[in-house]
Structures are given as structure tokens and as C-alpha cells.
Write a structure and sequence with these properties.
- By secondary structure, this protein is of the alpha+beta class.
- The protein is 51% helix and 9% strand.
- The chain has 15 helices and six strands.
- Strands 4-5-3-6 form a four-stranded antiparallel beta sheet.
- Helix 2 crosses helix 3 and helix 6 runs parallel beside helix 8.
- It is globular and about 55 Å long.
- The two termini are 35 Å apart.
- The relative contact order is 0.14.
Length: 358
């Protein structure tokens, strides 16, 4: 099945990376993360499998390194994972949000202001990354890579073909701020969708070279249009929203702080819908319902294309919020218990090995 592939990916990646001997392992899985929910259920399976192999093979791996390895391992399943899910799985801290940065993976605790909770809700539409990777998840990876290359070429970055892999590379090499990079993308990248031959002409590369260079390790449907301007603008502006969120959290508590954080979440959802195009009608309906029910901000979580939403709610109003959402969005839904469609959450500690005889 698709789900066993994640365990196999962790095992194959582990053995290859550590040149480990074959080992017969009996594993029983139990979890409360709904599969295909956009809540990183696939990454959770890779991460907990790799953690089990740490113990089975008697190998200690530092958390940051293990997060990076699990990102690499998950790509063996056909999904070009970015690494955020794995990083928070191994580097999370109780009661704190985490700012995650890459190359190398590093985290910064971000204390959340008091008085708020995050409520996650099920859109009732599955988000299966590996199944739809060719047209959804992996396509965004490719579009962002194409955008980074086109921006670097337009800006005259030396050796851009070899040195620019992601949009962050372009921003660093160009010396632009995030807002300047977004404005530059709007100015020099073609708007709307462009075909693979048009991309090749834009980059002054042959179509065969571009296909081998770009699609060789990423499974995508190349017979589509690439919206590189929209994707680049979203990424630059979304990163600025992340930094703005961190800055607001680090300020001394003030009246309206939670509302300001909620506005950033709403802006993120609108951009995910309009520029990154990873939302869907059900996610739009659910986030709208959540705002009407009292959420200060609501956005999709995970890879999008279905799955769950996350809403910032005043803790004192969380019960009323949940009741309103249940009566509105889930009125005609079939589910075994409310926890399968709605959860009040707070940040918890990272993954760990627990030995029953300790």
C-alpha cells in the first residue's frame, strides 16, 4: 500500500546511508494522526520508523541530522518533501512554536502569547501527497525552482545554473530583501502560465537539457503550465509573514496581539488560494466558517489540496468556537467522534524513544 511505502522508504534510506546490514524488524504502528489529512501523517510514519531503526540498529543520530535524513528518505516514496515536517518532529519543544530554517536545519523557539489556542479542523477532503504529487505537491517544487533560476538569470547572478536551486538562494545571492525580491519577481517574470518550451526559451536552455536537469529526480507532469511569477511572489511574501509572526510573538504582551497574529494567518490563506493555488473549495468553506465562528485567523495547514485547517482562537472562547463549527460545517458529516474532525491543540515535545522497562 501507499502507507507501507513510507516505512520501506525509511528502511531503505537508513540502510543505504549507514551501509547497515539487513535486519528483520517487527513493528506495530498506532497513531491518532488521521491519514491523508495534511497533518504530516506520511512524514510522521517516516520519522517514527527511522527513530525505531535508530534503536534497532543501535545507532545514535543527532535530532537535526535525523530530521534531514528523514526528509531525504521520504523522497524515496515519490514525494519531494521539503523538510519542515521532519524538523518539527525531531526539534519541537513543549509550549513553543518553532522558527525553522534550512541549509543547515536549525530552529529558534518562538514563545506564543498567552490567551490563544490553535484549533485544527478537518475539511473532509483527503490530502494524499504521494498520490497527487505529479500534479500538485511536486509541481510547486518545480515551479519554485524554475522561478529561482529565471530570477537569477534576469538579475545577472554569476553561475546561476549551478548555484541557484531554490528561491532562498536567489534572495541571498542578489542581496535583496524579501519585499524587494517579491517586487522584482512581479517585474521580470512572465505572468500567468507558461509552457515547458517557453520556460526553456526564457532560460535559454534546450528543452532536453531542461527536462533532464529539472525533472530527473522529481516526478511531475511536464505537460502543463508553470505559474512561476505567482509561486515566487507567494514564497517571498509568505516568508516575510513568518518573520512578522515571530516578531509579533516576541513583543511584550499587548491588547490586540492575538488579532494581529490572526490577520497574518488570514493573509497566508488568501495567498495560498490565489498565488500558490494549494487550497480547494472545501478548505475555503471551512476557513470562512471558522472566521464566522470566532477565529481570529484561519488557514490551511500541511501541503494543501485538502486536509485540515488551523485557526487561532481565544482560549476562553474555544468551546463556543468548536460548537459553532460543528453545528455549521460538520452538521451533515459522518464521523465517529468529534476528535476525528476537530482538535484543540498546543505545541508539544519532539519525538522520543520510550522503553517500557526503563
Amino acid at each position: 500500500s501507499v502507507w507501507t511505502n513510507y516505512v520501506k522508504a525509511a528502511y531503505k534510506g537508513w540502510r543505504s546511508h549507514f551501509d547497515a546490514r539487513a535486519l528483520r524488524v517487527n513493528i506495530v504502528f498506532h497513531g491518532i494522526v488521521p491519514p491523508g489529512s495534511g497533518l504530516s501523517s506520511s512524514s510522521a510514519l517516516v520519522c517514527c520508523s527511522a527513530l525505531a531503526f535508530c534503536w534497532a540498529f543501535g545507532t545514535f543520530v543527532p535530532p537535526a541530522e535525523l530530521a534531514h535524513l528523514c526528509c531525504v528518505f521520504e523522497r524515496l516514496s515519490g514525494t519531494n518533501s521539503g523538510g519542515m515536517d521532519q524538523a518539527i518532529s525531531f526539534l519541537g519543544q513543549m509550549g513553543s512554536a518553532m522558527l525553522i530554517e534550512f541549509d543547515p536545519i536549525r530552529t529558534t523557539p518562538v514563545p506564543l502569547p498567552p490567551g490563544g489556542v490553535f484549533v485544527i479542523c478537518n475539511s473532509l477532503v483527503g490530502s494524499h501527497k504521494a498520490v497527487t504529487a505529479k500534479t500538485h505537491y511536486n509541481m510547486r517544487v518545480v515551479e519554485c525552482k524554475l522561478a529561482a533560476m529565471a530570477l537569477a538569470k534576469a538579475h545577472g547572478v554569476s553561475g546561476w545554473l549551478d548555484s541557484i536551486k531554490v528561491l532562498r538562494d536567489f534572495q541571498v545571492h542578489s542581496g535583496m530583501s524579501l519585499s524587494e525580491a517579491a517586487a522584482f519577481a512581479r517585474r521580470v517574470l512572465p505572468s500567468g502560465g507558461i509552457s515547458a518550451p517557453q520556460v526553456a526559451r526564457l532560460l535559454e536552455l534546450s528543452e532536453d537539457y531542461l527536462a533532464n536537469f529539472l525533472y530527473g529526480s522529481i516526478t511531475v507532469n511536464a505537460n502543463t503550465l508553470f505559474k512561476i511569477q505567482d509561486r515566487a511572489v507567494h514564497v517571498f511574501e509568505e516568508e516575510q509573514r513568518v518573520l512578522d509572526f515571530q516578531a509579533l510573538c516576541q513583543r511584550p504582551a499587548y491588547e490586540g496581539q492575538l488579532q494581529d497574529l490572526g490577520r497574518l494567518m488570514d493573509q497566508s490563506q488568501f495567498s495560498n488560494r490565489d498565488l500558490f493555488e494549494v487550497s480547494c473549495p472545501e478548505l475555503e468553506a471551512l476557513t470562512t466558517t471558522c472566521r464566522s465562528a470566532g477565529a481570529l485567523g484561519s488557514r490551511l495547514t500541511g501541503a494543501g489540496f485538502g486536509g485540515w485547517t488551523v485557526s487561532l482562537v481565544e482560549a476562553s472562547a474555544s468551546e463556543q468556537f468548536c460548537r459553532r463549527v460543528q453545528e455549521s460545517f460538520f452538521a451533515n458529516a459522518q464521523f465517529s467522534n468529534v476528535e476525528s474532525v476537530m482538535l484543540v491543540t498546543s505545541p508539544c515535545a519532539a519525538a522520543a524513544i520510550i522503553l517500557p522497562w526503563d
